[in-house]
Design goal:
The complex is a heterodimer of chains A (about 375) and B (about 140). In chain A, about 60% of the residues are buried. Chain A contains 14 helices and eleven strands. The radius of gyration of chain A is 19 Å and the shape is globular. Chain A has a nine-stranded mixed sheet with strand order 3-2-4-7-1-8-11-10-9, with helices on both faces. Helices cover about 35% and strands about 20% of the residues of chain A. Chain A is of the alpha/beta class and about 375 residues long. By secondary structure, chain B is mainly β. Chain B has a five-stranded antiparallel sheet. Chain B has a three-stranded antiparallel sheet with strand order 2-1-3, covered by helices on one side. In chain B, a hairpin with a 5-residue loop joins strand 7 and strand 8. The chains are: A alpha/beta (about 375), B mainly beta (about 140). The interface between A and B is large, with 35 and 41 residues.
């Protein structure tokens, strides 16, 4: 049986500066990041013959092709999984280059999440939120914080997970962001700061919630053979997969609301990559909320269900810990580019290019996405 | 229940052909849910197909108004301005006696007495002449 394992590589990465406030459109931000990624790969925009555009964004592939002056474009797709889309797109891209459908596939993502339409209005326009928009919005559930908070509350009630453990995640992301000059939130915070931040949707306080920001990120995926002759050391895509939770269109109706789609994908992807949890040197875990990191650590299999809160204690997810997590500061403290910033960071970690926040001996790492009402995606990468 | 007094419009449900009997039921202060016409498995939210036996035939039945707390959140920040004057409000996720769940606010604004499995009972709030939404109160 054929496998995608190590058949494709990330060959270019790029990001804009992240801001809160911009005059630039989402398309302009997407193009800036895309140009950076293509240049990083040693290519020009016309070398791109495939694009996996962001399904929940404003920019479509045609917008890029027009600006690239593309003449022989061959593959266009979207991976509609909300915040899990960016990592899911790596699987699409790997399939396209592995089969010869395309040679260099761009995964771009730009958004004016701070300056443009905010999340509470965006959600109501998304088809995947149709069911909750009809049945839950009229009773007062109008944004992800309110949809996800009951998952966190049930986890706390069942397993004794605490707000102090949520704070540990927030503080760790902030400490990492302080080492990243392209992170928006770099001022250190304490547990007291976390607890004093205003309640948004109990148990989520402001400092449990990710940022809204403006900016773009992009990566280029190429076949492994081609990658050997390109500008950067190739970072191999060793395992990729996606998973949907039970009852994917409504958290409310899910048999176990503490179990995400990631729980289904993770075992498959570890097997595809041929690595174990002990092999993972660095993890970039989608952190729309602090709780979401704790839940995913369980669903990834780093600890048993219910033990994620204890897992994040004692510096385990910080630089120097057993599983350095979100070394760029994550969505909580770097910026919100729907997790494509997590992909960029993992590639840079595996290249050894991250300076003060570099994980020593980072050879194998994983990145996850979490989206919509619990969709999950995961990729395991390694340096060649 | 009296009509809601609010300065900002609330998000209103847009019933579909598949969901209209549910909303019509609430309007009449009855809990009317969907179930499979073939295997009788109740389901919520309304949809065309039974995920157990794949029958496309359904029927409606009057369901029990009793339920147990499955989880909750307390909304301190209104993400829709229509709910601003309600904050803080408690949103319950409830295991209904018929085996499906429902999200609705708790009449009482205080979450301190909540626990998993607490018994609640459905209540109805007429938010306009056309729309009634569910809510829960703690069962005495």
């Amino acid at each position: 049986m054929s496998t995608l394992r190590d058949t494709a590589a990330v060959t270019g990465v790029g990001e804009t500066r992240y801001t809160r406030g911009t005059e630039k459109s989402a398309l302009r931000l997407t193009l800036e990041a895309s140009l950076a990624a293509v240049t990083d790969a040693g290519l020009t925009p016309r070398d791109i013959d495939g694009i996996v555009a962001y399904a929940s964004g404003a920019v479509v592939a045609e917008d890029l092709l027009t600006n690239f002056g593309s003449e022989d474009f061959r593959f266009s797709a979207t991976a509609p999984m909300g915040g899990a889309s960016a990592v899911a797109a790596l699987q699409c891209a790997a399939m396209a280059v592995n089969t010869g459908v395309a040679t260099h596939v761009l995964v771009p993502l730009g958004r004016d999440g701070y300056s443009g339409t905010r999340i509470n209005r965006r959600v109501g326009q998304m088809r995947q939120f149709r069911v909750v928009s009809e049945f839950e919005a009229p009773v007062g559930a109008n944004a992800p914080a309110q949809y996800y908070a009951p998952m966190a509350r049930r986890h706390m009630e069942l397993y004794g997970t605490t707000s102090e453990q949520f704070a540990e995640v927030a503080l760790t992301m902030r400490r990492h962001a302080a080492l990243n000059d392209n992170a928006l939130m770099r001022t250190p915070i304490t547990v007291a700061d976390h607890h004093a931040s205003r309640m948004i949707a109990d148990p989520f306080r402001l400092l449990d919630c990710c940022l809204e920001s403006d900016g773009g990120a992009a990566v280029v995926v190429s076949g492994t053979e081609r990658a050997a002759d390109m500008a950067q050391p190739p970072i191999l895509l060793s395992g990729m997969g996606v998973g949907h939770p039970d009852s994917p269109s409504a958290i409310t109706q899910r048999p176990d609301m503490t179990r995400l789609g990631l729980a289904k994908a993770a075992p498959r992807v570890f097997e595809m990559a041929g690595v174990t949890h002990d092999d993972i040197d660095v993890a970039e875990i989608y952190d729309c909320f602090t709780y979401t990191v704790i839940c995913q650590l369980e669903d990834l299999g780093f600890c048993a269900k219910g033990e994620g809160g204890a897992f994040v204690e004692e510096g385990r997810i910080g630089l120097g810990g057993a599983l350095p997590t979100n070394t760029h500061g994550g969505l909580l403290s770097q910026a919100h580019v729907a997790g494509l910033n997590h992909v960029v960071e993992l590639v840079r970690q595996l290249r050894g290019d991250t300076g003060a926040r570099q994980v020593d001996g980072a050879d194998v790492g994983l990145v996850t996405g979490y989206g919509d009402l619990g969709d999950g995606s995961i990729a395991i990468m390694r340096r060649q | 229940m009296t009509q809601r007094d609010c300065e900002a419009p609330l998000p209103v449900p847009v019933p579909t052909a598949e969901s209209r009997p549910y909303w019509d039921g609430l309007r009449a202060h009855r809990l009317v849910l969907q179930r499979c016409a073939a295997c009788k498995r109740p389901r919520h939210y309304p949809r065309p197909m039974c995920a157990d036996c794949f029958s496309l035939d359904h029927e409606w039945f009057e369901a029990s108004e009793h339920g147990l707390v499955h989880s909750w959140t307390v909304c301190h920040h209104a993400f829709h301005r229509g709910f601003k004057s309600d904050t803080p409000y408690v949103l319950l996720t409830v295991d209904l006696a018929d085996g499906v769940r429902m999200v609705a606010p708790l009449v009482e604004p205080d979450a301190s007495q909540l626990s998993l499995g607490l018994e609640v009972i459905l209540d109805y709030l007429d938010v306009s002449d056309d729309v009634t939404v569910p809510r829960f109160r703690i069962h005495d």
